[in-house]
Design goal:
Elements (H helix, E strand, L loop, with lengths): L2 E8 L3 H12 L4 E5 L6 H6 L1 H19 L15 H26 L2 E4 L1 E6 L2 E5 L5 E11 L3 E3 L12 E2 L1 H4 L8 E5 L3 H13 L2 E6 L10 H14 L2 E4 L2 E7 L4 E6 L3 E6 L1 E4 L3 E3 L6 H4 L22 E3 L10 H15 L13 E3 L4 E6 L2 H6 L4 E7 L4 H6 L5 E7 L5 E8 L2 H13 L4 H5 L10 H10 L7
Parallel strand pairs: 1-2, 1-6, 2-3, 6-17, 8-15, 9-10, 9-15, 10-11
Antiparallel strand pairs: 4-5, 5-6, 7-16, 12-13, 13-14, 18-19, 19-22, 20-21, 21-22
Helix pairs in contact: 1-4, 1-9, 3-4, 3-6
């Protein structure tokens, strides 16, 4: 007998599970199809959460070795227990994935364990782990299968010495020399983890700067900060080949000149691609673009009635919180509401040390669009709380429109930038001016005062610089 649902979501990651929960909250009978042993998708299982757990643990290790003595805390010899660190990471993941299971039970969302495949509009075949298959009927189908690590041609990932992000989260030892291919979010975060734990890390980036989607001033500031920490960078270079020997990997690097780089392990972090394989898109006729992304309209509808897509499988930044907002929006649309997402208010964060966070337009985008803007910038060296904490690297940069003073973009490199950016995202969502931020009292002494001072600087009236 065919199961019937109002909404069937294929994919249990941040976009998918949020869509299913919100649909159920709105009175729709909802199911979520996912083939992993635990819910949460890449983000909770092998992405955002385990990487942040290791970033936190490795930063504490680095602090214990290098920074705590300045605070009068003398720990003597500091030793690394990598197995225990990895166990903590796994426990964090387990706690959160089980939390999603609890939320499904609480909201009466059915978790259908297995792989989902479209066979017709309104019909999904579920292939379970026991190889049994049965058909599900749905009033609406939401594809939220996320993304996977993009490969490099002719370089096979074995997750032992040639790693994707998945393997780099589960190493059982600290490699002496780690080469990171790709200077984006993932490569820099995981490179930072292993550098703090003792690896000699070299980042190889094809372009002339790291994190090229961010404001150029931020990418330059981050590279300088990481270089001072000991991470090496080779820009305008690419990995041409890898030759393996019992003791090491020989990487053939093409740049200004061709050379060989020796490493114990190499992390391939050249980006991610939509995961749309084996979904039956071709059989049903769902249209995709040249990058393999599912084409949708402003309401997340594909060209096939009743089939929708959100998150990493469609256009836009591959960010978990962007997928969550789209999951909520599509569920509300299916329930007859009219939600709106302001994509300019979606922040992006790199969880290195210092952190980097950005929301809205970059300087490069404003120049390209011929929009006149003013800049307000304030350094953390002049922020009392940053000085007390001993974390003075970086600055806050606000871009405001000349004619209206409306905040168009905010870019932060420095302590807790990922938290500070929330105020800026709210300002953009509400159409606030730089003066609105500047005239809002900020508690003293806090890091947030740097945001206020940057807003004051837009009008040339900063107090503390």
């Amino acid at each position: 007998m065919t199961d019937r649902y109002d909404v069937v979501v294929i994919g249990g990651g941040p976009g998918g599970y949020v869509a299913a929960i919100r649909a159920a909250q709105l009175g729709l009978r909802a199911a979520c199809v996912d083939m992993r042993a635990s819910l949460g998708g890449t983000c909770l299982n092998i992405g955002c959460i385990p990487s942040k757990a290791l970033l936190q643990s490795s930063e504490k290790f680095a602090d214990a070795r290098h920074s705590l003595a300045d605070h009068g805390v003398d720990l003597g010899e500091v030793r690394l227990d990598l197995a225990r660190m990895m166990d903590r990471k796994d426990r964090v993941v387990t706690t959160l994935t089980r939390g999603v299971e609890f939320l499904f039970r609480k909201n009466k969302v059915d978790w259908l364990k297995g792989a989902g495949r479209l066979v017709a509009p309104g019909r999904v075949v579920l292939s379970a782990a026991d190889n049994e298959a049965h058909e599900i009927e749905a009033g609406a189908i939401i594809i939220a299968t996320g993304s996977e690590s993009a490969p490099l041609p002719a370089i096979a990932v074995d997750e032992r010495r040639i790693l994707s992000s998945t393997g780099a989260l589960a190493l059982d030892h600290v490699p002496n020399r780690l080469a990171v291919i790709g200077g984006g979010y993932i490569g820099l975060e995981l490179g930072s983890v292993w550098h703090r734990l003792g690896s000699q890390v070299t980042v190889i980036e094809l372009l002339d700067r790291i994190v090229p989607t961010m404001d150029r001033e931020l990418s330059g500031g981050l590279q300088r900060a990481l270089t001072r920490q000991g991470i090496r960078f080779e820009l305008g270079a690419k990995l041409a080949a890898v030759r393996e020997s019992p003791d090491s990997l020989s990487l053939e690097i093409e740049g200004v000149e061709r050379r060989i780089l020796e490493a114990e392990a190499v992390l391939i972090a050249v980006g991610r691609r939509p995961y749309t394989q084996r979904l039956g898109l071709d059989a049903v006729g769902v249209a995709c673009d040249a990058q393999g992304r599912i084409i949708v309209d402003d309401g997340f509808a594909t060209n096939i009635p009743g089939i929708y897509a959100i998150g990493d499988v469609i256009r836009g930044a591959m960010l978990a919180h962007k997928a969550e907002e789209e999951g909520i929006a599509i569920a509300e649309r299916l329930a007859g509401q009219k939600p709106f997402i302001n994509y300019d208010a979606v922040p992006a964060v790199i969880y290195t040390s210092p952190e980097v966070a950005s929301v809205g337009k970059t300087e490069e985008e404003l120049k390209s669009a011929a929009i006149a803007y003013r800049i307000g910038k304030f350094p953390f060296t002049a922020n009392p709380r940053a000085r007390a904490n001993g974390e003075t690297e970086g600055f806050v940069k606000i871009l405001a429109e000349v004619s209206t003073d409306r905040v168009l973009g905010v870019h932060i490199i420095g302590p807790d930038a990922g938290t500070l950016i929330a105020e800026a995202a709210l300002a953009i969502e509400f159409g606030a001016s730089a003066e609105d931020i500047a005239r809002t009292p900020h508690a003293h002494p806090t890091l947030n005062e740097a945001v206020k001072e940057a807003a004051l600087t837009v009008a040339g009236r900063a107090i503390h610089i």
